[in-house]
From TrEMBL:
Residues of the full protein shown: 375 to 744 of 956
Domain Tr-type G: 77-247
Family from the record: Belongs to the TRAFAC class translation factor GTPase superfamily. Classic translation factor GTPase family. IF-2 subfamily.
Lineage: Bacteria, Pseudomonadati, Pseudomonadota, Alphaproteobacteria, Hyphomicrobiales
Job description of the protein: One of the essential components for the initiation of protein synthesis. Protects formylmethionyl-tRNA from spontaneous hydrolysis and promotes its binding to the 30S ribosomal subunits. Also involved in the hydrolysis of GTP during the formation of the 70S ribosomal complex.
Chain residues that bind GTP: 86-93, 133-137, 187-190
Subcellular location field: Cytoplasm
Source organism: Enterovirga aerilata
Protein name per Swiss-Prot or TrEMBL: Translation initiation factor IF-2
Length: 370
């Protein structure tokens, strides 16, 4: 197994060896500076000290996954991926539903089919926008913590009759931490006690300066109930997207992120994925987290079988051998052997990490009982 000396570990983190020794001591392990510890313990120490760990062996096994740069000449514009956030009951889901009704394509096909975690609409001008309905901010944070950056723009929904509330503030700090541009939707404008000016002033207290107050955050007065302002909101999102100049290579092997996944009785594991680059097609061998499979079918957000899914497209994937986790990044690989190599390695790391954690916990427990 991989090991590292305490001195080495300290050097790599630019920490003092004595601090590493102290930390291990707290966990019931006595070491001197020249001792070696195993990789899992080293990782726990490093994480405890606030470092991000990248295991070299993992880099070897996963070489070529996710870090192959796109070819400049292959880059093509892609639709923006928009996440809606805001305080509970301020109308996030209602807004998403109302926006979906403006979809010229789905409208023709018979309107809303079911509630799903992600969908793409085509605006009257023919532009596409992908919307993601993350179930609460916790999911957003978890995805970010795992290195999955899926959102290009956050729409902050604030109810005009309620104003800035705790989860509004939370959403603001999430968007800021993720470095994602934000657009404000002041919702429920149809309500008699709607007070958008109050919302603007309260936002200012949280360092969000909207356009009408001289700032550069786009703001839109909307109503999910009446549909007021939705067209303008969509135009605003497209404008914001234009500034971001979003591009991806649609030709390479597909990569992206699992948005949600569940085990379906009849169909087996079903994963909703967001393709972020490349083209995903039936027959592809796909790896996500510690799971892999051969894509048996791709299903669109309206429930139809599709032959391909390109950048920014949210599709359901059938064919995984197990259920991946939300936030897992996925990639198409060249062979089943390669898929097995990667997933077996990841499964082993997962097991070993759990075991290391358990032994560290035993250490600190023994400590406490002393
Ligand atoms: P959570 O998912 O629970 O955080 O709530 P949400 O933000 O998704 O809010 P949701 O869309 O479920 O709406 C909450 C309530 O507000 C529902 O009763 C909606 O009918 C109502 N509502 C949402 N948008 C509007 C609006 O524009 N006008 C009015 N009058 N009511 C609205
Ligand atoms: Mg909701």
């Amino acid at each position: 197994p991989e090991t590292i000396t305490i001195q080495d570990l300290a050097n790599r983190m630019a920490e003092r060896a004595v601090d590493v020794i102290k930390l291990l001591m707290k966990q019931g392990q006595i070491h001197k500076i020249t001792d070696t510890i195993d990789a899992d313990t080293a990782q726990l120490v490093a994480e405890e000290l606030g470092h991000t760990v990248r295991r070299v062996a993992e880099a070897d096994v996963l070489e070529g996954l996710f870090d192959e740069p796109d070819l400049e000449e292959h880059l093509e514009p892609r639709p923006p991926v928009v996440t809606i956030m805001g305080h509970v009951d301020h109308g996030k889901t209602s807004l998403l539903d109302a926006i979906r009704k403006t979809d010229v394509v789905a409208g023709e096909a018979g309107g809303i089919t079911q509630h799903i975690g992600a969908y793409q609409i085509t605006t009257p001008s023919g532009a596409k926008i992908t919307f993601i309905d993350t179930p609460g901010h916790a999911a957003f944070t978890a995805m970010r913590a795992r290195g999955a950056k899926i959102t290009d723009i956050v729409v902050l929904v604030v109810a005009a009759d309620d104003g800035v509330m705790p989860q509004t503030v939370e959403a603001i700090s999430h968007a800021k931490a993720a470095g994602v541009p934000m657009v404000v939707a002041i919702n429920k404008m149809d309500k008699p006690d709607a007070n958008p000016q109050r919302v603007r002033t309260e936002l200012l207290q949280h360092n969000i300066q909207v356009e009408s107050m001289g700032g550069d955050t786009l703001e839109f007065e909307v109503s999910a109930l009446t549909g007021q302002g939705l067209d303008t909101l969509l135009e605003g999102l497209l404008l914001q997207a234009e500034v971001l100049d979003l591009k991806a290579d649609p030709l390479r092997n597909a990569e992206g992120t699992v948005i949600e996944a569940k085990l379906d009785r009849g169909r087996g594991p079903v994963a909703t994925v967001l393709v972020q680059r490349g083209l995903l097609e039936p027959g592809d061998i796909i790896v996500a987290g510690a799971e892999w499979g051969r894509v048996r079918a791709l299903i669109s957000d309206t429930g139809e079988m599709i032959e391909e899914a390109g950048p920014s497209y949210p599709a359901q994937v059938l064919g995984f051998n197990g259920t991946p986790d939300a936030g897992d990044r996925f990639a198409v690989v060249e062979s089943e052997a390669r898929a097995r190599e990667i997933t077996e390695y990841r499964a082993r790391v997962k097991r070993e990490r759990a075991a290391a954690r358990a032994s560290v916990n035993r250490g600190s427990l023994a400590d406490m009982m002393r």
